[in-house]
Write a structure and sequence with these properties.
Layout lengths: L10 E6 L2 E7 L5 H12 L25 E3 L3 E4 L29 E4 L11 E4 L12 E5 L2 H11 L15 E7 L11
Antiparallel strand pairs: 1-2, 1-8, 2-7, 3-4, 4-6, 5-6, 5-7
């Protein structure tokens, strides 16, 4: 399996009201997915539904919440409606890579409703989840211990009967560093 240092130098930092989560993205393993994520994060990719701020332009994720949190499994965000039903108004195909598997915690992957239904929602695992192999595109890994601590704190936050945090966990912005050619690298 690849170590986190094998993926290049493309990073996304999710700035949340609970702390920052720095993620090393995997543009060589999931190029379309990384390009989509960076485009939505920076606002350089077109989308047709309203973002969390109520606009159809600008950074898509700013103001979105982690709407689904399951201790021992994952934290999920990227839906501007906060319901688990929202997305950018388009879908794209999965990208599975033979070197990547849900064999460890702290992997960033696309949430979907089945094959080819990726959009904007993503999740970060907090445990091994091999049942997700070849069902969800892995496109990043949490890069450092401080960020893992933030993920763990979010994963253990109090939730209601629908796994929604009682107190909102908000993505205030996402900054991108070292984006590969062909993607926007401006920080948002």
């Amino acid at each position: 399996m690849c170590d986190v240092t094998d993926y290049g130098n493309t990073f996304a930092t999710l700035h949340t009201n609970r702390g920052d989560i720095r993620i090393q993205l995997m543009p060589f393993h999931a190029p379309k997915t990384v390009k989509n994520f960076i485009g939505l994060a920076t606002g350089s990719k077109d989308y047709t539904t309203k973002n969390a701020a109520g606009s159809t332009s600008g950074p898509f994720y700013d103001g979105a919440i982690f709407h689904r949190v399951i201790d021992g499994f994952m934290i999920q965000g990227g839906d501007p409606t906060g319901t688990g039903m929202g997305g950018p108004g388009y879908q794209f195909a999965d990208e599975f890579h033979g070197e990547l598997a849900f064999d460890r915690p702290y992997l960033l992957a696309m949430a979907n409703a089945g094959p080819g239904t990726n959009g904007s929602q993503f999740f970060i695992t907090v445990g091994k989840t091999p049942h997700l192999n070849r069902r969800h595109t892995i496109f990043g890994e949490v890069a450092d211990q401080a960020s893992r601590d933030v993920v763990d704190a979010i994963a253990t936050t109090a939730t209601d009967h629908r796994d929604r945090p009682v107190d909102d966990v908000v993505i205030t912005s996402i900054s991108i560093e070292g984006a590969p050619e062909g993607t926007a690298s401006a920080e948002s």
